[in-house]
Structure formats: C-alpha cells, structure tokens
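Pipeline run #58 for the internal structure catalog. This entry was flagged by the ingest filter as a single-chain record with no existing model, so it goes straight to prediction. Upstream metadata was stripped on purpose; only the residue string is passed forward. Reviewer on rotation: M.T. Logging verbosity set to normal.
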Amino acid sequence: LDQTAWEKLPDSIVTCSSLNEATAILPNPSCTAALRIRTLPKSTAQELLEYVDSNPEWPGIEEFHPLEATWDRIAVIDFTRVPANSDKDPLSQAIGYGRNLPPRFSPQVASAQRAISEVMSVLPAKLAALISEDAAELLSALHRNTGYRQYKLALELVVGDTCQKWHCDQNTARALVTYVGPGTLCAHERGV
C-alpha cells in the first residue's frame, strides 16, 4: 500500500495477499493487525493435528506451573550486526541466543538458523523442517519491512488462556502463525 492508502486506513485489521505486504504494513500506527490467510496442505494439517492430539511433553515443562497456559520454546534472533547494504541474505548473517545456545554477547555466537532449529527441535523432523522454513521466511520479511533489529521467535503449545500475552501493552509488533485450531482471533485493544 502506498502512503496515501495507509493514511486513509482506520484502526483496522488489514487483509493482505502476501507475507511481504503483511509485514510491510505492520509498522503503520493505523494498522491494528495485518492478516494473511493461507491454507496448509491437508496432509500437513493432519500431521500437526495428530501431533497436538498426542499430548506431547516438551523438555523443560517441569519448570512451568501446573496451571501455566502455554508451553514455549524461545530464541531471540538478532540482526544488529548485519550490515544495512549487504549482498548476503540478512538471516544468514543474523545471530540467535536463548536456551541451549550461547548467551547474549558471548564471543561464540549461534547462527539464526541454529536458533530456529533449537526452537523447533521438540517437533517431529518433518514438521520441524516445515515450521523452521516458515519462521525463516517470516523473520526475513519482518526484518526487510519493519526495520526492527531483534525478534523473539517462540513456538508455543497453547493449553489454556494466553490472551494477555498478545495485548498491545506487551508487544511493539507481533506476527502470529496458527497451525492447529480455529486461528488467531484479533480484536481492537479497546474492545478487550
């Protein structure tokens, strides 16, 4: 969308035809959310549903309170050291840190791809590969279109009410992908 079209947008959810378009509109203050609808192949959707229905137990869940609504795997993907006008793929130059990765500011750094793989390591190999590819595509588009330098990558298995995690007061911007279930419900902050 051009600047004139952005200025005419009310606080709204904008339906976009591509990931690039959705990530490009996110920084606009008048955009409550950018929505890109896509359907997974039926076999992939079925595999994801079967995985969730199997009641997987991720490593480290013993650290959560029994009433915790979400089990998550998190890494921070950091593009701070990526030169602005590099000919290389920015994601290949980004670094990651988090659990089972070198700590932030460590002299030994992990690649962003290693961080993505660590987050997805709780999934069966085929699903991990698919969702890792999605994450890489999303991170690249977000970096290209928002100008932000750091992103929290989280794989979450929602087992209760987590709506407070996604309110406007908790995030500058967010990109959510729902793989199993009815999707992500969006509402204006004033209505919540």
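catalog note: The chain has six helices and six strands.
catalog note: The longest strand covers residues 70-78.
status: ready for reviewer M.T.
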